[in-house]
Design brief:
heterodimer; A: 452 residues; alpha+beta; Muramoyl-pentapeptide Carboxypeptidase, domain 2; five-stranded mixed β-sheet; 26 strands; 27% strand; disordered N terminus; B: 334 residues; Immunoglobulin-like; five-stranded antiparallel β-sheet; three-stranded antiparallel β-sheet; 6 helices; elongated
Amino acid sequence: MPTRRLINRWWTHALTACFFLLSVVPSAVFAANEVIATNNCHIVSSLYGVPYPGIPGDDSVKKYGVTRDVNSYYARFKDSMAAAIKNDGEASIRAAAFGAYSHCATITVTPIEVPYRNGSPVYDLLSDNTLVLASLISSPRWRAGWVNSNPDPSCDIARSGSVEIIAVSSIYAPLQKVNQPFHHFSDESVDLINATCLAGGKCSIRLSGPGGIDGALADVEPGKVVSGLRAEVTCDGAPSDKAVTLTVEANANTGGHNHHDSARPPGSLSPASGNSPVTFSFTAPAPAGDHIVTAKCVDGSCGEDTGKVWVGVKDLYQLNGSTAYELIQPNADVFHPGNHYLTANASIVLQGIASEWRTLYKPFGPVLHLNDASLERGGYFDIQRLWNRGEHAEHRRGTVIDIRANNLPGAIPRGDFKDFERAARKYGAVARLHKKNTELQHYHVRLFGRPE
Amino acid sequence: MKSHLYLRAILSAMFLLTLLFIPVTHAIAEQEGITRDMVTGDLIVTYKGVDDQGNEVFQKVIFIPGTKIEPALKSKFSFDRNDRFQYRYKLTNRSTSQQNIDLIILMASSVVSESIAIPEKWNGTMSINIEGGGNRVAWAHWKRGDDYAGLAVGRSESGFGYKSSDLPGVGVVQLSGATPVFGFPDEGPDPESEVGKQLNQLETNDFVPRLAAIPRIPNPAPFNAVVVLGSIQKHVQEDMVAMQLIDPALLGLIDRGLTQAIAAAQIGNTPSLLHEIKNLRKLLKQEHADVDQDNDGDDDDKEMQPNPRIAKLAAKVLDFDLKYVEKRTKKNKD
């Protein structure tokens, strides 16, 4: 990182009559000052220039311009500069700059964001004699301000002021590098709004992965790790080694959870930063859901890219209605409305137990009343909305289901408990009473006889 | 001065009390684990759970294993006219058992549906063994409201059976003793915790295994000697060896004989195939004189040798399978 020293000086050489200036202001051909830079391009730009007094002997670094309305100015600026470059070249620009030199006010364009508010340092001078904007460049909110430093009392009327510029769609700042001709409008001009080099340096970042459901970067089961995710920066189509930072967050109301708060675990990325290309892995949290990975360049110069990682257990199916059992619906837990999901094989086992219970054991009694199985994508069924802790720790993979066994209608009668346990075991399942001797008593049935 | 002495006495007493209490508090500190009651054989499971207020507390439940039984199981198998094999079992709950037997489970390569033989007071089910393939056959004793119902100690029951199109091999039958309903005041231990894993292991293995003749050798239709002999060889090499039913020296002889029989079957050399089968059966008969007798199974009562190199059940199963191949080969030849 180059060393920087802040420059906070205002023009001291406003030389000509302010009346001239004030008469010109409404017509708005004030020299523009868009001395703005991006970190990667080290931009110094201005429309009309005089040597910047802060850097004796270095007339390549300029800061000029006056305008009240960047938007309206910009249209003229772009056209005139294009014409100037095309027709007259640099000499024309110099001439125009000299004309503006007579203004008694200067305009600076500053970002609004703290700490660079009005009058604060706007530019940093880098060790390589380029100027950079000492703030985020991605913000479209800029303030055009002017300060009249002419000591002539007649200039007091236009001593200072500012207007906020909100609707700037695009500002192209010409690029000037060290040792390049003054106001050399190279093809490396910069779109200040998007903070990317338009040509010769336009950068973008792209996420990729092994692929997944619904265009996801990847699929991964809760608690598991998926590798092979990648963030890659290219500038003008060529790979770049820009520093990249990665973040991830869970999408609200996904994965069968109709609740969301800041405690929802987002999972983790490893590594979460590095130089492009960054190959990283994602460790999924216990709850299922969509997780959004965002990749950015540290210097903000390449925009951002986002991608989804699908976290869940695949191939879970909602239990259909059956004469052999009854689904307890609607689910009293409004935060997890879809609670009857099982794997296909687990459904077969359940159907076997329920059918036998219906035909052999209880032909005249209540059918099995089924409560919580798994959520639509499995993962931690946080019935207490604690995300990755609390009860229902096992209802994650669609092989476990709760069956009513209390005093409510449809419950397995106490006298049949042992028969039900035997019936379950005949099909390879293990049924154990949970919340025993409470009003929430139920059979927790591991349909394959093992925990999830 | 006097008060100073009092103070010293109090401090000394406090120190002594502290010393006394430290080991006491250590002794009563609970921790997760499973311990066995040396008198009853029951398992006391202590785990971190929650009380009815949701507070984390140590919970304690008693897991009574269904393994306090000493069962004996005899297998009988025969060939019927419909090209199917009849399997029958006699279960005895020996007098040394402490529990009634209420559940019998086995996994077979295939079972003919609706062929389950069910004794009185029992029910039987044949289902698909989803994870392992083949069929799952289970009998459960039932008597509503009686958690401990089952085949009583000292009693036998012989009405269990089914049919299959597959030949017998040796397999494990899971037998469980009747236990009371087991449950937790909450949702039980975290299945990922050490105690949770141990309890899962206990529940998974909560049965007493007994070996029996079970359909394990696929028998394709039409009959294919190469396939059947290949399955027999695989069963001997893998299952019988794993169950330690055969001596390595005898295994070598049988394996070689089966390889030669398969080679003969592959080239259609029936005389050679029959010769190899005859030799193999002779080997088995040298180990168990009554290996080809249709008796009740696996009692080693008529031994040719004091220490046979193959378990009798394995020998009988193998002999039966070879006899079947021999019979079908002769039939095809005719």
